[in-house]
Amino acid sequence: MFDASSDDLEFTFDELTGVLAVSGGLFSELDARRLERQISEALVRVSHRLVVDLSDVTFFPTLAIRALILARRTASVARRTAQRDGAEVEVRAQSGTLPHRVLTATGFPLLDAS
């Protein structure tokens, strides 16, 4: 397990479960890039599935959605290029949270954490 945190945004990755838990707010482009980097780093440590859990995220702008789309696309391309099973990126958020409401409204594939 590794942690990377700054002022308000925190990441915790559990290799055993393949869950990258994100908490705090994604307030800037720098925060969105940190999210992209954390997902990329976690992807190389899992073999089948990475779950990005946004249940404790308090602010979720379009930059965060972009980071998730890029992560899913990168994982998909890596699986096709390698012509083998690779890690998929799935996103989970507690029902009623801001990320759940935003991602549901946009039609983004989402696991419900409730």
Automatic annotation (TrEMBL):
<dbReference type="InterPro" id="IPR036513">
    <property type="entry name" value="STAS_dom_sf"/>
</dbReference>
<protein>
    <recommendedName>
        <fullName>STAS domain-containing protein</fullName>
    </recommendedName>
</protein>
<feature type="domain" description="STAS">
    <location>
        <begin position="31"/>
        <end position="114"/>
    </location>
</feature>
<dbReference type="InterPro" id="IPR002645">
    <property type="entry name" value="STAS_dom"/>
</dbReference>
